[in-house]
Amino acid sequence: MKKKITPKIMPGFMELLPAKQLAFDRMKAIVQNAYESYGFTPLDTPVLELSDVLLAKAGGETEKQIYRFTKGDTDICMRFDLTVPFSRFVAKNQNDLAFPFRRYCIGKVYRGERPQKGRFREFYQADIDIIGNEKLSVVYDAEIPSIMYQVLTTLGLKRFHIRMNNRKLLKGFYASLGLEEQSADILRLVDKIDKIGAENVRLGLKDLNVPLEICDQILSFVEIDGTSEEVLSQLSALGIENEAFKTGCEELKIVSDALMALGVPQTHYKIDLKITRGLDYYTGTVYETTVDDYPTWGAICSGGRYDNLAENYTDRKLPGIGMSIGLTRLFDLLDDVNLIRTKGQTPTDVLVLPMGDGVSYPLAVARTLREAGIKTEVYFADVKFKNKMAYANKTGSPYVIILGEDEEKEQVVSLKNMATGEQEIVSLSMIAEQLKGLLSQKEELPVIAQE
Amino acid sequence: MKKKITPKIMPGFMELLPAKQLAFDRMKAIVQNAYESYGFTPLDTPVLELSDVLLAKAGGETEKQIYRFTKGDTDICMRFDLTVPFSRFVAKNQNDLAFPFRRYCIGKVYRGERPQKGRFREFYQADIDIIGNEKLSVVYDAEIPSIMYQVLTTLGLKRFHIRMNNRKLLKGFYASLGLEEQSADILRLVDKIDKIGAENVRLGLKDLNVPLEICDQILSFVEIDGTSEEVLSQLSALGIENEAFKTGCEELKIVSDALMALGVPQTHYKIDLKITRGLDYYTGTVYETTVDDYPTWGAICSGGRYDNLAENYTDRKLPGIGMSIGLTRLFDLLDDVNLIRTKGQTPTDVLVLPMGDGVSYPLAVARTLREAGIKTEVYFADVKFKNKMAYANKTGSPYVIILGEDEEKEQVVSLKNMATGEQEIVSLSMIAEQLKGLLSQKEELPVIAQE
Does residue A3 form part of some domain? Predict the structure, then answer.
């Protein structure tokens, strides 16, 4: 007999068994539905791109992680995020698109990282972006977190915060302190305050030669807390006469007011002056979403406002606002703390178990059920009843239909509710209607099993 | 200004603009729903695999087309189909799965082919397979084409034929003619009869030293035509006393009877003794689906029965039956003959156009609509009414809501039906209900616009 090859996969790749895969797919469908409910349109760009096109901007750490190879004479990259291909797409097709252009993309991206817990080499990102032609209203900056609120609550996540800040406000604040030149270093430092603590930030500021008195001002600035309204009034009370600062405050006010109109509760968003996000990209509103019970997870979705989506590819100014969820990472984190709710190994609503050799009646019953929109599987194997029920139990369909000779003769079915064990005889002409009713009463529990 | 990079993609990669992408995604969703309606469970294997695992079986043409590269010390391949990763998955997880194991997978696969019309380097496959543990009932061989019938008719395809044959029957037939040794060459030749014609097959058979009289027998065998019943009775009349032949006929009979019980009309399937499929893999039922109006397209979905899914990875015998649709190719073919129906550039049901500066009322209206399950977009840009309507027309939402100062004051909306141009005033408290009603009346036309 031929030598067998061990059927292993590479580390850093998530491959799920059916029950978990079904849960992951429910998660993906919820994200997709939420994105579409706001009128975002799907795009699907290639996983492979020409290296000189994809790497127009990349460099440093990103470039090292990229899966890059040649085939023939072509230098090829696997996409490492969804944003760069999207910017290439918009530049390429700008004359065919209607602006503001609202697109979502849920797809796999690749990073050849050293595999470690929580770091994936292949993972799903779920991105939304709204792109303006030359300009884009700041009201859209409220739509994006509103969608994320809808996504996360629909998934079943209870306690989380969408944290918002504004880069103009930060820029103006540090300018008002005369720290324009050091502002990048300071922002990077302050962004870490939740991890390293205020004292270490103070030491770091000292190393940057920030005067002691100004350190205090910075630390009390980033620790401003409260509702949006409270934070904005404290910011106003600082009396800073700087245009960028004022614009930033106004934008945050517009976003906060719009979030209220959109029905996002104040318990789930806040202004957080500590967060900054990528320094060379974002220019206005920035977001980070954290899960209250799991602060060590860091941000589970993030994004912000940028001035130029596609400056490497086009002269046209394409400002945008976007946000991204790392679905694979989020699923993995939730699964680690047993918060993923599974429902069996199959999407099947009802499993038909024929007891005899006849196939026509079981297939006809299945046909009737499928025509009524009921997901139906028929089990054909010449095994004992016990083994048939073992299959039913292992796969986990909520209902089982048992068909023996008597059932066929009388044109009925035996319907068993697998949760309660109750069994009843139902006529063939009624079974689809009855099962549809039973299934529609079943409460669809969220993917995330958080109390 | 920095030099711009041309935002191009590689040839052989399909990248769609929004209207077409939406149509493609509708197609994908229809396939997925049909697969799930038969209780198939989704799997998602990595796009990258270890070369020595993935290429356990491959060789020749396939291997040349593979995207293969090293990263660090790892020899990596991009998957070139969904079957090999699936067989690796089943071997790896055989003790956790319930058999028969029914999985579907809709995903991208990669082949570094020379790009040419209709050949893609990245394309979606949509596979279903049912895998038995040691054995698997032949009734399942009817379920697979029944699903494909459902998929294709739901897509809107009208005239197509699922052609079936059986390899045991062929094996037995050629054995009965004393042609066992040449049967592979003969099958390859006969498989081409629709392309090259009977006379060329006759010449080819002569080259294979098949006696003239037997050529006639082969040609009249492959040209047996009619309903399943008619074909089976003609086969029976041949009086061939060969076990494999008889088993093949019996299996075709079971499959035909089961297809009838499943409600697949005889107008859409037939026994076709010409088709063979891959010689080193399939062992029983084989399928090929052709579109009547476009015979040059060849098979748009195909598959069959195999004895050993995963013989490179496990000693356990895992027989299976499966079928696959090349979604990207099918979409491309349909699009070429203008059979893809698009519906605008957005999934949006209703576009809200605020006329003034106020944002709260438009956002509150949008919230109300979204909560009722209506896909709603709000347009914020300080442009003329004409430009707002141009955006509405370009993106193609079926309804538009216009909100001026009067509407807000009176807590109403102006609802415009974009198809008819009719406009009416509806109260805020009624709008969600009314739009839901209007949208539910709209007939959802199939993706394929075939008469």
Answer: no
Q: Is residue B451 part of a domain?
A: no
pLDDT at A287: 96
Nearest-CA distance B64 → chain A (Å): 11
Structure confidence at residue B131 (pLDDT): 98
CB contact under 8 A, B313 and A7: yes
Q: Answer yes or no: is B252 within a domain.
A: yes
pLDDT level of residue B64 (50, 70, 90 thresholds): confident
B377 with A102: Cβ contact below 8 A = yes
pLDDT mean across residues, chain B = 94
Task: Give the tokens for residue A154.
Answer: 């629909």
* B66, B78 contact by CB (below 8 A): yes
Question: What pLDDT, on a 0 to 100 scale, did the predictor assign at position B318?
Answer: 97
Are A290 and A423 part of one and the same domain? no
Tell me, yes or no, whether B84 and B218 share the same domain.
yes
Residues of A in contact with B36 (CB under 8 A): 347, 375
Inter-chain CB proximity A381 and B10 less than 8 Å: no
pLDDT tens profile B76-135: 999 999 999 999 999 999 999 999 999 999 999 999 888 788 789 999 999 999 999 999
pLDDT at B113: 80
Q: Considering CB atoms only, which of B6, B43, B380 is closest to A137?
A: B380
Q: Name the strand (E) or helix (H) holding A403.
A: strand A399-403
Ramachandran quadrant class, A238 (left: phi over 0; alpha: psi -120 to 50; beta: rest): alpha
Strands (E), B79-180: 101-110, 122-131, 160-166
Are the beta carbons of A7 and B377 separated by less than 8 Å? no
Question: Which of A1, A14, A15 best probes binding to B when mutated, by most B CB atoms within 10 angstroms?
Answer: A15
pTM for the whole structure = 0.97
Residues 6 or more apart whose CB falls under 8 angstroms from that of A141 comprise A251, A254, A255, A258, A284, A285, A305, A321
The verdict on A275 and A356 lying in the same domain is no
pLDDT digits (tens, 9 = 90+) for B272-322: 999 988 777 899 999 999 999 999 999 999 999 999 999 999 999 999 999
How many contacts, defined by CB atoms under 8 Å, are there between A and B? 287
Torsion angle of C-alpha atoms B417, A42, A283, A94, degrees rounded to 10: -80
Nearest beta carbon to residue A375 from set B37, B50, B314: B37
- For B346, the closest of A39, A47, A374 (CB atoms) is A39
What is the model's pLDDT at position A40? 98
What range defines the domain where residue A434 resides? 350-441
Judgement on whether residues A94 and A199 belong to the same structural domain of the protein = yes
Nearest-neighbour CA in chain A from B196: distance (Å): 34
Answer with the one of A290, A308, A336 that is the final residue of a domain: A336
Cβ–Cβ gap B44/A363 under 8 Å: no
The tens digit of pLDDT for each residue in A392-440 reads 999 999 999 999 999 999 999 999 999 999 999 999 999 999 999 999 9
Tokens 């998602």 sit at which residue?
A: B44
Q: How many domains are there within chain A?
A: 2
* B39 vs A93, A261, A347: nearest CB: A347
CA atoms within 13 A on the CB side of A349: 23
ipTM: 0.96
> Of B286, B312, B336, which closes a domain?
B336
Do residue B44 and residue A36 have CB atoms under 8 angstroms apart?
no
Q: Are residues A398 and A296 in the same domain?
A: no
Record the tokens describing residue A397, joined without a space.
């369909």
pLDDT of residue B180: 86
Q: Does B351 sit within 8 Å of A7, measured CB to CB?
A: no
> Tell me, what CATH number does A114's domain have?
3.30.930.10
Q: In this structure, are B165 and B51 located in the same domain?
A: yes
Q: Is residue A195 located within the same domain as residue A330?
A: yes
The verdict on B262 and B379 lying in the same domain is no
Partners of residue B381 in chain A, C-beta under 8 Å: 100, 132, 135-137
Identify whether B110 is part of a domain.
Answer: yes
Closest CA to B376 of A143, A327, A219: A143
Average pLDDT for A173-200:
90
